[in-house]
Amino acid sequence: MDRSFHDSLELNSEAISSLTLNPDVRDPDVLIAACILCVLEMMSVNPREWRHHIGGCAAFFQASAVNGFSGGILSAAFWCYTRMEFCGAAIAYGTEGTILPIEKWVLLDKFPARSTIPGDVDKIIGNSFLEMGRQTPDMYVNYAVYLCAKVCNLTSRRTRYVELGEDNGCNESVFVRTRTLRWVELQLWYEMRPVQMVPTKNLPGSNYNGRFPQSFFAHWAAISSNQLYHTACTLMLESMRTRTSVSSIDSAVHSPLWHARQIVVVSLMNLHRACLNYAIIPLFVAGKLFSHQDEQIVIVDLLKKIESCSG
């Protein structure tokens, strides 16, 4: 293990341990401090080690029962944390899901969790996101993060079931059924977008040798949310193509490469500073699908711009 990583992890663990001395795990100061520690660690260590630094923060949120619907500053801290969860899961090549169980991400009083079938729970949660997203664009971005995490968890379960022999119940029939539910959720997100989330203008491929079209967004939240949507679709379609045969319901949808191009387009045309860091993982996901050197150069240049602007 790299010595600098060992020191960083040790200091982070010591800081997290100090926070646990506060008996009130719902104290906003404690949760925010834990999130800040995670952000600083993820900026300074190898991305492959991100999950080691998320665990402490996940434990705080699980113990406090704070979730994405808690409201106020607690929700803000939680959604900051979930973006890091998604980053760690997305670069794991389908082998790892989220540390904090996805059922802990959003909790509602509208249904008895143990007596409602999963499909109904998904609909209630989705409707709640849609309702809040119409009032607060930030919440619609959070909805996209939530859907991305659900896709990562599904692909991870399937990979571990097939390749590692893990007895997690994700057999072929369960995978296909759950995959269909996730795909419907993603398309509902896209179809029900508030007006702020829709591009102000779309142009056909006319830049970078015609390889990428152009899409312009007026609202910063639209930049991140649409990019995350295309990222989730890319991950989902890749799992359809490589893990099992694509069913008839998928014959009319766009290819993973189409979604990957949209990920790149969003960053090419909308380099808003508030969205720079959130674009790194989507660009990583998209970049794995491009084989032409010109396209790879575009992504590398984008990553360099993000680094120069954000450090």
Could you describe the 3D structure shown?
The protein has one domain (66-310). The chain has a two-stranded antiparallel sheet. A hairpin with a 4-residue loop joins strand 1 and strand 2. It has 311 residues and is mostly helical. The model is unreliable at 242-252 (pLDDT under 50). 37% of the residues are buried. The longest helix is centred in the middle third of the chain and has 27 residues, at 137-163. It is globular and about 55 Å long. The chain has helices at 3-19, 28-44, 50-64, 72-90, 118-135, 137-163, 172-191, 220-243, 256-269, 280-287, 293-310; strands at residues 201-207, 212-216. The protein contains eleven helices and two strands, in the order H-H-H-H-H-H-H-E-E-H-H-H-H. Helix 1 (3-19) packs antiparallel against helix 2 (28-44), helix 1 (3-19) runs parallel beside helix 3 and helix 7 (172-191) packs antiparallel against helix 8 (220-243).
